[in-house]
Amino acid sequence: MSRLNIELPGLSLKNPIMPASGCFGFGREFSQLYDLNLLGSIMIKATTKEPRFGNPTPRVAETSAGMLNAIGLQNPGLHKVMSEELPWLEQFNLPVIANVAGSKEEDYIEVAREISQAPNVHALELNISCPNVKEGGIAFGTIPEVAKNLTKRVKEVSQVPVYVKLSPNVSNIVEMAKAVEDGGADGLTMINTLLGMRIDLKTGKPVLANKSGGLSGPAIKPVAIRMIHEVSRAVSIPIIGMGGIQDASDVIEYFYAGASAVAVGTANFTDPFVCPKIIEELPLLLDQLGIGHISECRGRSWKANELFAHNRA
Amino acid sequence: MSRLNIELPGLSLKNPIMPASGCFGFGREFSQLYDLNLLGSIMIKATTKEPRFGNPTPRVAETSAGMLNAIGLQNPGLHKVMSEELPWLEQFNLPVIANVAGSKEEDYIEVAREISQAPNVHALELNISCPNVKEGGIAFGTIPEVAKNLTKRVKEVSQVPVYVKLSPNVSNIVEMAKAVEDGGADGLTMINTLLGMRIDLKTGKPVLANKSGGLSGPAIKPVAIRMIHEVSRAVSIPIIGMGGIQDASDVIEYFYAGASAVAVGTANFTDPFVCPKIIEELPLLLDQLGIGHISECRGRSWKANELFAHNRA
Amino acid sequence: MIKNEKLSVVSHKEIASRIFELTLSGELVSEMKQPGQFVHIKVSNGMDPLLRRPISICSINREMKQFTMIYRSEGRGTALLAKKESGQEVDVLGPLGNGFSEHEVKPGETAVLVGGGIGVPPLYELSRRLKKNGVHVVHILGFQTKDAVFYEEEFKRLGETYVATADGTNGTKGFVTDVLEKLEGSIDVIYSCGPTPMLKALEQKYSHKKLFLSLEERMGCGIGACFACVCHTADDPQGVSYKKVCSDGPVFRAGEVLL
Amino acid sequence: MIKNEKLSVVSHKEIASRIFELTLSGELVSEMKQPGQFVHIKVSNGMDPLLRRPISICSINREMKQFTMIYRSEGRGTALLAKKESGQEVDVLGPLGNGFSEHEVKPGETAVLVGGGIGVPPLYELSRRLKKNGVHVVHILGFQTKDAVFYEEEFKRLGETYVATADGTNGTKGFVTDVLEKLEGSIDVIYSCGPTPMLKALEQKYSHKKLFLSLEERMGCGIGACFACVCHTADDPQGVSYKKVCSDGPVFRAGEVLL
Ligand SMILES: Cc1cc2nc3c(=O)[nH]c(=O)nc-3n(C[C@H](O)[C@H](O)[C@H](O)COP(=O)(O)OP(=O)(O)OC[C@H]3O[C@@H](n4cnc5c(N)ncnc54)[C@H](O)[C@@H]3O)c2cc1C
Ligand SMILES: Cc1cc2nc3c(=O)[nH]c(=O)nc-3n(C[C@H](O)[C@H](O)[C@H](O)COP(=O)(O)OP(=O)(O)OC[C@H]3O[C@@H](n4cnc5c(N)ncnc54)[C@H](O)[C@@H]3O)c2cc1C
Ligand SMILES: Cc1cc2nc3c(=O)[nH]c(=O)nc-3n(C[C@H](O)[C@H](O)[C@H](O)COP(=O)(O)O)c2cc1C
Ligand SMILES: Cc1cc2nc3c(=O)[nH]c(=O)nc-3n(C[C@H](O)[C@H](O)[C@H](O)COP(=O)(O)O)c2cc1C
Ligand code: FES
Ligand code: FES
Predict the structure, then answer these.
(1) Ligand lying closest to the C-alpha of residue B75
(2) Which positions does UniProt annotate for FAD binding (chains C, D) (predicted)?
(3) Atom of ligand 3 at shortest distance to CA of D228?
(4) Closest Cα of chain D to B146: distance in Å?
(5) Which residues contact D31 (CB under 8 A, 6 or more apart)?
(6) A89 among the known binding-site residues?
(7) Ligand 4 centroid to residue C41 C-alpha, Å
(8) Inter-chain touch B23–C42, beta carbons under 8 Å
(9) CA gap D176, C72 in Å, rounded
């Protein structure tokens, strides 16, 4: 009897653990370290219509309990992802979540239409929140109406459920979440990185060539937990949570906040075996906490105690 | 010859280091540890019209390289601050920055009018960004028009320059900064805390009684640096920077980003002697970096190299 | 005076399940005034974890400039502390707060010291001082289970000592209050430290006695500046008057603050 | 195969100013294939600092399952690494990347190994192998100043060795390229590792030779998954084709990628 399986729109997950987009490439490198079939799913690197080289280097900088990145959506482009990366991933029993990015609405739509037809792509993750792309990007992630319209148009062309990835760099995350729910999103993924910067002591210049970048890692976990806590009560679509997850306890904290599954990003760099480790630890932790199935944890931070007791009875 | 003195509206600082509001009370406790005259200034605890007890406990929670607080603006109220705390501080040669808070516009105005008349209050810090107060607060800190109007009205009654403390929990920090500059602000202080939450693994409930709280400490430094980098180029009023400062290098990083002085918050809890330590270390670090006066560092991250070289010549 | 000093580890051992006894030496010890005061400890050099950990002073040896703490390895911070070895340094801020006044009870009178779990340690220095003052001391120590019991012998050497365990595996099965109720002879003062429910039960039943309670609260600064550890005063339970556990307490007279 | 293992410290000493030589032992050593490969090191247990640090393999002893690194204590991470003592463990991910191919030069031919500062270490294992293969090896090692010089004797034992220091306090005053220019006799291959300006200078002057360069770049994962360490290929300097320093490199043939 599994205690970790989770059903989400488009996704039948053997466990709720998956690598976050951009932190795992298309899985090739990690497949040399462990069997990718262990994972619940995989969120592949952001795919754009045309191949992109991304930003100049340095592209990463370390911060306290976090890191900044300004990769700039480097990827081989829709065509290669469809013809090489996704077919390669078919050898695994792994529902793929395809991260879709662009700088114009048309780009998103074209990528979504095509990539959602790949047999192993079971859901899209609409990346409206990449902080490292100069043109366009920002409005999609920060103006509710714009996000809603994009969601709607992508939904029209997508063959699979659409999850929208929210940016934390907004005044009102609930408003954004509701807007994309209105636009027809099947789920949310959150959070993308916070915008940050580091300056080199000796040169006086930003460490990243792109100057600012996206802050990820344990430093941002409290922000993510707070946002998921707020959003999960305000919408009725499920949330895949991410931001600083390092171990099984973090996963439970995300479920308590209101997430239905989680993604692990930066921690893959510190410990490339972190995903299978978490999957192994989770049942033991559930035992310790006296919880039968992981789904019982969902929303426990805001559900009334009684209700929760009843659910477990 | 001092290499650390800084002139700001209302503030003639012997050095640019001061404790951040809420992390130093009214100075009484720290005065038992060292001579407060060492400090550049002191930002006293938020003062409201009436005394406030604040939120239930627990009021603090630890996070990775950070902490959450939900003190809830506990303070003895305007009357006591005027009659007891500020007079007590007069024994020191210390320009005081009074942090002014409220939940209604009228409250701010009344506190600002009164407290700006205290002889040792040389500037006000308008706290439009406290994340831990349920009513009112949020709009002041996130809607540019509202912030601008409040600034304008406070300026009308204040006897001393007014600095506005910006919240980082906004989509567009530059817009907020420009709005309060338009409203007549003499300076900015930034950043206040990011909204965050931690959930207890065993109980499934938020650690803080208030549920969410403000995230401070090294974790948020990259966010603060990025915001100051953006804002300092867009406005012409000076910025007092804060967020995760722990040592002299952090101070220089803030100056490089565009700050003209800095405040130290959370680090006072880890090391109560941190402010005098930083003040002592700064000249040594300036030596190492080959910088004469600390003000030369200001904005180096965005000033053209030539311009900077010229300034130093 | 409050000092910040790196003290060196004299000895460090696990004396019960996950319970560690740590003895440190340094100048700061000469500042320690009262049993029941605490120190605020930085367990690592870096910022992980960021905050200090408050731990009570368990015994003081002024001549040797040493003091001992007893703590439970609980979360991340105390787990790291548990790794410190003899000769290494520990960053200590202290002594902090106001402890138990040993002068509330006269020679020949009886003081009952009631401790629960990791609330037991500060009572040890108190007991030593009371005993020295000629006070008749009785100890009632509550623990979860046999494996968690510590310092039973040490307390016995100072006076009558009763142990209660929640599961009955050592001493009386039940709570310290069960033992206290059955105690014979007069009681002049009760000093107590332990979990809040225990303190509440004591306050409810023994508010007519001279009763002192040591409180716990999550702390930021530990020195009274951040208002993290505030509690309502008992006479103004909804109002704005308050006490800080770190600097006004952690020991309060029963009825002074709202538990 | 890439492994993640806690290796134990066999020896650790400062061999020049802020330059440390660290020997570790563990199973992972048997996976090491080439000189010029590197390992990715986690210097602390917690998350401060968060990222691993890339350090080149300096010498490999497969029989003893030991390998040696040489690094400069620079920022926070390497300063912490410098504190590790014999018997302690170091979390190592590796071996990573593609190193110097020793088969690009035939027995009897001449290979010149040009290293700058902390770029010197990976050349040591390379030199040992070349020498074993019967290659004539010449070393040109550049440092800032006398105090920063290390492994001069070790290299001398393997072949002709020239040292250059920027301030002239040891060997030739100037850059490694100054020495290289004056070198007599034929050069069949140049292998190099050091700061980018040095690599650029070599590429400019010796692109007609067989020249191999080991690059440095800020890294995230170190295994090719995060695209932090990407550089343009030389034939498409503005385009989308790329190489990853961590997994395609760190050693490239001159002219392969844009420096
Ligand atoms: C005045 C005082 C005296 C104390 N004396 C002792 C003692 O003698 N022996 C002992 O074992 N314990 C004592 N405690 C409790 C001790 O402080 C906590 O067990 C310890 O802080 C937990 O830290 P951690 O790293 O294990 O847990 P974590 O879960 O990592 O702690 C996270 C944060 O919560 C705080 N925290 C967690 N539990 C408590 C708690 N119960 N009280 C206050 N803060 C808490 C930590 O200080 C830290 O800031 C005392 C607490 C106070 C307030
Ligand atoms: C393939 C490769 C091999 C290397 N081999 C060696 C070696 O054998 N000996 C040696 O002393 N150094 C070597 N370096 C450089 C070494 O990685 C850095 O000096 C080290 O990471 C600095 O870490 P820190 O904690 O001292 O500095 P910090 O300033 O704390 O580092 C902050 C962040 O920047 C990164 N960083 C800083 N400087 C560099 C750099 N020069 N290159 C890459 N990342 C950097 C760090 O890894 C970390 O993520 C190598 C680098 C690479 C890429
Ligand atoms: C190096 C790097 C690259 C990333 N690339 C992408 C990306 O291409 N698309 C995307 O939606 N998110 C991207 N992210 C964001 C992550 O998917 C994730 O939302 C974020 O890092 C927070 O999770 P973490 O703290 O576990 O890393 C990237 C993050 C990092 C660190
Ligand atoms: C315990 C605590 C209380 C605070 N109270 C106030 C306050 O009363 N008014 C205010 O403007 N900011 C308050 N702040 C925010 C700080 O002044 C500062 O902006 C923030 O903590 C970031 O700086 P730091 O990372 O150095 O702490 C408080 C912060 C903390 C940690
Ligand atoms: S812990 Fe800061 S006031 Fe008590
Ligand atoms: S460091 Fe991640 S791809 Fe090279």
Answers:
(1) 4
(2) 53-56, 70-72, 77-78
(3) 1
(4) 40
(5) D1, D2, D3, D94, D95
(6) no
(7) 22
(8) no
(9) 59
Task: Please tell me the least confidently modeled range out of B249-253, C183-187, D11-15.
Answer: C183-187
Q: Which residues of C touch B59 (CB under 8 A)?
A: 218, 227-230
Please give the sequence-ordered ranges of beta strands (E in DSSP) within B89-179, or none if there are none.
Answer: 96-100, 121-127, 162-165
In whole angstroms, how large is the CA radius of gyration of chain B? 18
Give kind and range of the element (H or E) at residue C127: helix C121-132
Look up residue C62 and give its amino acid. Answer: R
Cβ of residue C224 closer than 8 Å to a chain B Cβ: yes
CA dihedral A154, A157, A163, A164 (to 10 degrees): -10
**Terminal C-alpha separation, chain C:** 28
> Cα–Cα distance between B176 and B188 in angstroms, integer?
10
Using alpha carbons, list the distances in angstroms from residue C46 to B65, C51, C65, C192, D48.
Answer: 9, 10, 27, 35, 7
Task: Tell me whether C50 touches chain A (CB under 8 Å).
Answer: no
Q: Which of C1, C31, C221, C245 to mutate to test the interface with B (most CBs of B within 10 A)?
A: C221
Nearest Cα to C248, choosing from B28, D220, B243, B220?
Answer: B28
Q: How far, in Å, CA of C187 to CA of C24, rounded?
A: 35
Q: Give the DSSP H/E element, type plus range, for residue C160.
A: strand C160-165
Is the Cβ–Cβ distance between B278 and B20 less than 8 Å?
Answer: no
Chain D residues touching A32 at Cβ < 8 A? 1-2
pLDDT score recorded for residue B134: 54
Helix (H) or strand (E) holding B285: helix B274-289
- pLDDT tens-digit map of A81-101: 999 999 999 999 999 999 999
CB-CB contact of C179 with C165 (8 Å): no
- According to DSSP, the residues that pair with A99 across neighbouring strands are A125
Q: Enumerate the β-bridge partners of residue B75.
A: B52
**CA–centroid distance, residue C225 to ligand 5 (Å):** 6
User: Is residue A81 within 8 Å of A87, Cβ to Cβ?
Assistant: no
Instruction: Tell me whether C209 touches chain B (CB under 8 Å).
Output: no
Q: What interface predicted TM-score (ipTM) does this complex get? A: 0.96
Cβ–Cβ of B58/C93 closer than 8 Å?
Answer: no
**Closest C-alpha to B268, from C90, C93, C5:** C93
Residue B256: which H helix or E strand, with range?
helix B248-257
DSSP 8-state secondary structure symbol assigned to residue C233 = B
Query: Radius of gyration over alpha carbons of chain A, in Å?
Result: 18
Please state, in angstroms and rounded to a whole number, the distance separating the CA atoms of residues B26 and B45: 6
Q: How far apart are CA A66 and CA A88, in angstroms?
A: 32
* Contact present, A242 and A188 (Cβ < 8 Å): no
Is the CB–ligand 5 distance for residue C224 below 6 Å? yes
pTM of the predicted structure, to 2 decimals: 0.97
Chain A nearest C-alpha distance from C47 (Å):
8
Question: Residue D246: closest CA among chain A residues belongs to which residue?
Answer: A29
Residue range B127-159, pLDDT digits in tens: 997 665 555 566 788 999 999 999 999 999 999
Helices H / strands E in chain A, number of each: 12, 14
CB A59 within 8 Å of CB D227:
yes
Q: Which of B193, B247, B254, B271 to mutate to test ligand 4, by most ligand atoms within 8 A of the CB atom?
A: B193
Going by C-beta distance under 8 Å and a sequence separation of 6 or more, which residues neighbour residue B267? B217, B244, B245, B246, B274
- The Å distance, Cα A289 to ligand 1 centre, comes to 21
Give the separation between CA D125 and CA D58, rounded to whole angstroms. Answer: 6
Tell how far the Cα of C216 is from the centroid of ligand 1, in angstroms. Answer: 8
Give chain B's end-to-end CA distance (angstroms, integer): 18
Ligand 2 pocket residue status of D121, Cβ below 6 Å: yes
